[in-house]
Design a protein that fits this description.
With 312 residues, the chain is of the alpha/beta class. The chain has helices at residues 17-25, 62-74, 84-89, 108-115, 133-146, 150-171, 196-202, 221-227, 241-251, 261-264, 284-295; strands at 12-14, 32-35, 52-54, 80-82, 94-98, 124-128, 179-185, 190-191, 206-207, 231-234, 268-271, 309-311. It folds into two domains: 12-129, Nitrogenase molybdenum iron protein domain (Rossmann fold, 3-Layer(aba) Sandwich); 175-311, Nitrogenase molybdenum iron protein domain (Rossmann fold, 3-Layer(aba) Sandwich), CATH 3.40.50.1980. The longest helix is centred in the middle third of the chain and has 22 residues, at 150-171.
Length: 312
């Protein structure tokens, strides 16, 4: 390298949709050279080579996806496949993945197996595992540092924190705080953990289950009936709005849904759980906006109704 010349920008493969969004929000999309099959935002990233695939039929019902996942886990098989040849051919300096959930995205073990006999310097493996909003902001700083632009991470995290704080300031002044069940999976029924209860609280609600930073958990249907929340918001992980709506409409006549006060009073809502809520990236702020609109429509209007959420 010529003395005084700057180093070339790092080549990045992101195997986590949230990380892809973070890289782009940092203004560093040009660093990306590969992505996972689930990375689809911003739309411009779909031009990138795909380095992963799923061993499950992702277009199946929530119950069938659960059965497929359980079979793979029982047989000690990974849910995802990494195209090692393509990954090595892209010559990344940094590979971003996650250690949070083996169902949500590719994990470090999958990447390490795919890299196999790496020729030359191995890429840096950056694993993200946020549990709360503060962890998501820290992940943005981490990614920015790994890509040599730490100041951008600070600016992005600060801007998002400010947006959250403005919503929280308004919601904190509201006397009415409805009880809320935020649902992450339809069948079997699962709570929205991690940042889910935190989003509910910041939006001006009271989560009926979980706590800030706690895991998502499977619950028996009768538990939801016993809790009988004022509001139910279903944001199924990996499901977009039309898909979530279709599955919920098909199951409303069955327990536990047909026994809920929220259903009888028109306070059952579906939300886009693929682009929002379950991606720990910049659009968790939009997820907060969605909840605020749902819970307090007279105080919050962000324009997400119809595209980000709908009433059933």
């Amino acid at each position: 390298m010529i003395e005084g010349a700057s180093a070339p920008p790092p080549r990045v493969v992101s195997l986590l949709p949230a990380a892809t969004e973070i890289v782009c929000a940092l203004g560093l999309e040009s660093h990306l050279v590969g992505r996972s099959h689930e990375c689809d935002f911003p739309p411009s990233v779909t031009r990138l080579p795909v380095c992963t695939s799923a061993r499950i039929a992702a277009d199946a019902s929530s119950a069938e996806i659960d059965r497929q996942v359980r079979r793979l886990v029982r047989d000690a098989l990974s849910i995802y496949e990494v195209d090692g040849e393509r990954l090595r051919g892209l010559r990344p300096d940094v590979v971003v993945t996650q250690t949070q959930c083996e169902v949500c995205a590719v994990g470090p073990a999958d990447v390490e197996r795919a890299l196999g006999a790496w020729v030359g310097g191995s890429p840096r493996l950056v694993s993200l595992a946020p549990a709360r909003l503060q962890d998501v902001w820290e992940d943005m700083r981490t990614v920015a540092r790994e890509l040599g632009r730490p100041e951008r991470g600070e600016r992005l995290a600060s801007a998002l924190r400010d947006r959250v704080a403005r919503i929280a300031s308004v919601s904190a002044s509201l006397a009415a705080r409805p009880s809320v069940a935020l649902v992450e999976w339809i069948e079997p029924l699962m709570t929205a953990g991690h940042w889910g209860p935190e989003l509910v609280r910041l939006a001006g609600g009271r989560s009926v289950w979980g706590h800030d930073g706690g895991p998502s958990e499977r619950v028996e249907p009768h538990v939801l009936v016993e809790l009988d929340p004022d509001v139910v918001v279903v944001a199924a992980c990996g499901f977009d709005l039309p898909r979530t709506r279709a599955e919920m409409v098909a199951t409303l006549h069955r327990p536990p849904w047909n026994a809920l006060r929220a259903v009888r009073t028109g306070r059952l809502f579906v939300a886009d759980g693929n682009h929002y809520f379950n991606r720990p990236g910049p659009r968790l702020v939009e997820s907060l906006e969605i909840l605020a609109e749902i819970l307090h429509p007279r105080r919050f209007r962000f324009g997400h109704e119809g595209s980000g959420w709908q009433r059933i």
